[in-house]
């Protein structure tokens, strides 16, 4: 019995030792945080190998920072490119229109066209009327309307024609954008040059230098005013379109003749009398031309003729007396 109890006690002791040995070997598998602390205390080659992980993290973060810097540079470059891009140039086009209209009442339509131009923000430049034929009327009207309303004005004028006819219609557009941009660039350059001359004039001491700079400044100012005047003219022509209208009453295609036989006979007699008078007047004019000529040339010839005839008579008389 004692042996059995002793065997059981030894077995329990052996089991307890084996458990304590297992519990003692478990701490070799420490958590990561405890292992880092132990490595930080103990150092060694293993510590160097374990410290490579944070360096990898640093590399990742640095690469991320590099990517962020690259993106920032790209954004800056994109913003610079956007800022340096020039704004689209507004095109300057001069629109002109011409229309020849045949209407029963040109004056009424001319007044309607004037009202139309005023309603669109334009105005009448000239209006002229003249009489043609017996009862015909021809009018010339020139109006100016905003360029944005040019097409609408042409359409409205076509509506005003109504039962009339459009004999001729012409629309032209002249693009002056290039000239306008060139003039603006020249103007900026001239203004900059003018500013430089003004600065030089402030610093000039000698009177000769001041006069020379003033002459150059006057020349630049003249060019600036010329460029500004041309710019204003192009701006005005491009902002307001010109429409020229010629309105006239209908003209008969073939002239109708209402003359009968007796009227034709009277016309023929009248023409014969006029021709006879012309012949008589022609002869009178001819005689008026010939009389001075005959008087001028005939008198000397007649004198010569009389002298020769008297000599011949004397010779004949002498010859007869000699024979006797």
Written account of the structure:
A hairpin with a 3-residue loop joins strand 2 and strand 3. The model is unreliable at 19-85 (pLDDT under 50). This protein is 69% helix and 16% strand. The protein has 324 residues and is an alpha+beta fold. The chain is elongated, with a radius of gyration of 60 Å. Among the domains are: 98-173 and 244-248, 2-Layer Sandwich (Alpha-Beta Plaits), CATH 3.30.70; 178-239.
Index terms:
Alpha-Beta Plaits; 9 helices; 324 residues; elongated
Question: Secondary-structure blueprint of this entry?
Answer:
Elements: H1 2-25, H2 32-42, H3 44-50, H4 52-84, E1 93-102, H5 106-119, E2 123-132, E3 136-146, H6 150-161, E4 165-175, H7 177-203, H8 207-239, E5 240-248, H9 261-323
Parallel strand pairs: 1-5
Antiparallel strand pairs: 1-4, 2-3, 3-5
Helix pairs in contact: 2-3, 5-6, 7-8
Report the C-alpha radius of gyration, rounded: 60 Å
**Molecular shape:** elongated
The ordered H/E elements are: HHHHEHEEHEHHEH
Spatial strand arrangement across the major sheet: 2-3-5-1-4
> pLDDT under 50 segments (min length 5)?
19-85
Q: Average pLDDT across residues?
A: 75
How many strands in all?
A: 5
User: How much of the polypeptide forms β-strand, as a percent range?
Assistant: 15-25%
Structural class: alpha+beta
CATH second-level architecture of the domain at 98-173 and 244-248:
2-Layer Sandwich
What CATH calls the topology of the domain at 98-173 and 244-248 is: Alpha-Beta Plaits
Number of helices: 9
Distance between the termini: 244 Å
Give helix % range: 55-70%
Largest sheet: 5 strands, mixed
CATH class annotation of the domain at 98-173 and 244-248: Alpha Beta
């Amino acid at each position: 019995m004692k042996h059995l109890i002793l065997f059981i006690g030894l077995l329990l002791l052996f089991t307890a030792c084996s458990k304590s040995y297992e519990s003692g070997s478990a701490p070799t598998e420490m958590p990561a945080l405890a292992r880092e602390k132990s490595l930080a205390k103990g150092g060694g080659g293993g510590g160097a190998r374990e410290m490579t992980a944070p360096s990898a993290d640093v590399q990742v973060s640095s690469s991320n920072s590099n990517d962020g810097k690259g993106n920032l540079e790209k954004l800056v470059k994109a913003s610079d490119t956007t800022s340096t891009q020039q704004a689209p140039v507004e095109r300057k086009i001069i629109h002109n229109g011409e229309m020849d209209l045949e209407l029963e009442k040109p004056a009424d339509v001319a007044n309607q066209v004037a009202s139309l131009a005023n309603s669109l923000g334009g105005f009448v430049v000239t209006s002229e009327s003249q009489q043609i034929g017996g009862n015909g009327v021809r009018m010339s009207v020139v109006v100016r309307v905003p360029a944005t309303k040019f097409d609408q004005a042409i359409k409205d004028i076509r509506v005003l024609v109504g039962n009339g006819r459009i004999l001729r219609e012409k629309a032209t557009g002249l693009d002056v954008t290039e000239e306008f941009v060139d003039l603006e660039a020249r103007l900026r350059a001239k203004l900059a040059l003018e500013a430089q001359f003004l600065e030089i004039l402030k610093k000039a001491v000698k009177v000769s230098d001041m006069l020379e700079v003033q002459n150059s400044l006057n020349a630049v100012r003249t060019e600036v005013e010329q460029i500004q005047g041309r710019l204003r003219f192009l701006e005005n022509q491009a902002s307001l379109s010109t429409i020229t209208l010629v309105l006239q009453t209908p003209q008969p295609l073939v002239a109708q003749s209402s003359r009968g036989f007796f009227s034709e006979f009277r016309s023929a007699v009248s023409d014969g009398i006029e021709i006879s008078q012309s012949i008589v007047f022609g002869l009178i004019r001819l005689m008026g031309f010939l009389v001075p000529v005959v008087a001028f040339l005939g008198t000397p010839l007649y004198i010569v003729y009389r002298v020769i005839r008297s000599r011949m008579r004397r010779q004949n008389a002498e010859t007869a007396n000699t024979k006797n």
